[in-house]
Amino acid sequence: MGAQQACLAAGDLALSGIRLRCPRCATGIAALDCAACNFSVAIRDGIAHALSPESNAHHARFMEDYERIRESEGRGSESDDFYLGLPYRDTSGRNRGQWRIRARSYDYLVRQLLDGTPRGSRILDLGAGNGWMSYRLARAGYRPCAVDLITNDRDGLGAARHYQTCLAKRFPCFQAEISRLPFADEQFEAAVFNASFHYAEDYEASLREAMRCVKAGGMVIISDTPWYAREESGRQMLAERRTAFLQSHGTAADSIATLGYLTDERLRRMEDALSIHWNVHRPWYGLRWAMRPLVAKLRGRREPSKFRLYVARKGE
Known about the structure:
The protein has 316 residues and is α/β, with parallel strands linked by helices. It has one domain (43-313): 3-Layer(aba) Sandwich (Rossmann fold). It has ten helices and eleven strands. The longest helix has 20 residues, at 53-72. The chain is globular and about 60 Å long.
């Protein structure tokens, strides 16, 4: 196979028939190259790199800090079993509590929110990380597309290689910004912000992009982003996190100002700006989780975060 044929084969593998739009100038892309601004989507190791040089420079410090912190926390593994067990089984034993929350959110999403979505539907996995949700969705019969900034092979999109022996076809992976998605309009039945919406710099722009990419009647879902009843509690959480990161990792991880958390007021502002309506779903995360607000109050601590699922439908 010649170099050009190899490139085309790699493109077919990574894109899987998904129509593209230039993330730099928003022009439709017929193949991998934008005729308007000369931006090219590069396919390397099964990942479609759709991050412009300007965006890459903007996010470079954030990505460096994020990867350093995650590595320090012991994220990822060399074992296929680790990835294939997620989110139900954390064989590393390092983050079992977090994965327990992810598992219950995912089960609720599939059984309650995607129940009426036909198998074979395209679903955007925004903030896919190591690709665990895309893997689970593919096993359930959907056609996921994983999107993230991080591409390393332990905690980023490169880790998707661990799933390929259990899937008939590897799901497409894109390195891209959630506020500048490289996809043409209206080709996904749902878009899920997978524990990632709180990383958005401009949450209205990110939500608009997700809405643009889903079909009329399709869903945009925010999963596993912390919610607080009081704005002050969210600000305090961010301050505590900055201090903890500085002490443990030598960086405050605040090179980019991100959303950080949700409140009812922020959700209302999004409803007004995008003319949408949020349906709020509250999965059961267990008695210990439910008791956290009471325990915090008795101990004189700030309110703990809550996790909910927020669903907005695109108008017909």
